[in-house]
Request: fold
Amino acid sequence: MRSMIGLLTILFTVCLSVRAYADGPLESQAPPMLSGAWVPADSRSIDFASLPRIASEHVIVSDVRPIGGDATKVNKTQGGVNQHNYLIFYQNLFWIMWSDGPGVEDRVGQRVKYATSRDGLEWSAPEYLTPEPPGSGVGTEFYGTRSEKGFRWIARGFWKRGDELYALASLDEAAGFFGPSLALRAFRLDEKAHTWTDEGVIADDCINNFPPEQLPNGQWMMSRRAHDYKKTGVHFLVGGTESIRTWESFPVLGSNSELTAEEPLWWVLPDHRLLAIFRDNRRSGFVYRSFSSDNGRTWSTPEQTNFPDATSKLHGFRLRDGRYVLVSNANPKKRDPLTIALSSDGVTFTQLGYLVGERHVDYPHVMEHEGCLYVAFAGGKQTVEVLRVQIEEMTKILDQAQPLVR
Reply:
């Protein structure tokens, strides 16, 4: 009898432990995501227009606004979409890629374009990176529509793996988000020919949000949404070491119940835990956050933070000086302005600045190079634009000023 009671006690304890791990009680005690004497009880009430202004240099790389719009750069065409911007510095060049297609947004016939630059400000004329989607090119029946009978490419970022540079793009039917044939494909750069070679599918039923980054154990990881992700939630793919096609998929439990998770972002914390943040398509007005202590295999249940958000894509990473940067649309009322936040530990952000705004600006991707941040973003989903920010100058501005509260 005693042994039976002892066994039941052990089983009960294990069940409680499993439940606790699944719910992430330790992480629920994590500090707030936005903190400081200047932060109001409801962070959504921050006066975002009065945030400290971060000085930057600005350029428009590509512009597809209708003729007559406020364009300041060449490469102008008659309407369309420019969105999903990604940057990298490779072989002494800046590279940028984005989705380019007929109409706003992600319609039949959409392709991926790219351009290069030596300084991040003067860019080459855009070129196509992907071919026309199957049976969906200019002049085909469903071109420019939202139809399950036509296909579209969506830009998914650059992946530097060893000495090779890959450009990632998803391909699926263009009716909604996403089609049943959804797949993530890789194009390898041929440096001598300055062309991109299609290496085929690297992950079936998958669209990532950002390209793979390395984990502390040397493996690669990227987010995964399947074509039915609204039912199945967000996953993370881990692997990529044996080949570009070798991945295991691990779910973030609760990412389709605690919130409607979109466009995940993750980084490694100083203690080697992982932190993931999610846009919430239920329009809570806040970012959600989850933690992993086993290199992305299991995750705490996502919890709502106090970091405000306009239900838009965001991007961030760890700077070389150890701080963390997050670029997003922090104003929950609209995608204006684009803001930049700084954190010393990757968990709590204590400074928030204004990058660009007074118009629709979104879908940022940011990188660091030689003391500067380069921020690519979309203007009204029709321009590809880049800011160059001096990190030292940005730090001075944020150290000397605090956001105002209504």
Remarks:
- Residues 32-400 form a domain with the Neuraminidase fold (CATH 2.120.10.10).
- Confidence is low (pLDDT under 50) at residues 1-27, 70-77.
- Residues 20 and 26 are 8 Å apart (CA to CA).
